[in-house]
Amino acid sequence: MKAVKVFGRPRSMFDVKTHYCPGCTHGIVHRLVAECIDELGIQDRTVGVAPVGCSVLLYNYVNCDMYEAAHGRAPAVATGVKRVRPDLVVFTYQGDGDLASIGTAEIVHAANRGENITVIFINNGIYGMTGGQMAPTTLPGQRATTAPSGRDPKLSGYPIRMSEMLAQLEAPGYIARVTVVQPRYVLKAKEAIKRAFQVQMAGKGFSMVEVLSTCPTGWGLSPNESLKRVVEKVMPYYQLGEFKNVEL
Q1: Alpha helices by DSSP H, 41-181
Q2: pTM of the entire structure?
Q3: Tens digits of per-residue pLDDT, 26-83?
Q4: Could you list the residue range(s) of the whole structural domain that residue 126 is in?
Q5: What is the count of structural domains for the chain?
């Protein structure tokens, strides 16, 4: 009986091992992005933009044309690419320290202008690459190297819910929050990422998928503890769902 291959590496993903810490979910999201690119048949016209942070090495894993942007400036770079070449499918891949802190103005105004780009936003609530500092998405009471006693909202404000905030703008076409910490959530995350690309391909404006992720090293937890923490601590604050979804 001839064996049939039912599962394999996406064509839009290089055949290399990732460098991420055990329990980090960046690799899962990389694969979902690559699978969506394959299924939509857009590899030859897709351009990714990766800024500073753990996301910066995306070009080592996703097999498409890539730009590297300065910290927080990925939406501006993506805007430039898309306006010059509107036939391309352009996406950014950004962490929360990048998108929600130094890049706040970039993401808000790109969304408000309805730039026809797609943003994959990895929210692990901490600066993962640079030492575990507090991010704009760090939860109240969560400890970080710059908040050793835990985040105090009286001093640092409350965590910013970026998806809900951007969904209040008129121009965005699709905004959703997903996670990949359990198998039952992975397929929903893939559906959201594919939808975001389809919104761009239909010319319906800005699209963003926020992915609740882990950072075992930054959190000081084991991989299993990190996955559990997302479900028990992170998801109650950052509710999953679609916040804006235009008709195609």
Answers
A1: 74-84, 96-97, 104-112, 153-156, 162-167
A2: 0.96
A3: 999 999 999 999 999 999 999 999 998 888 889 999 999 999 999 999 999 999 999 9
A4: 26-144+155-245
A5: 1
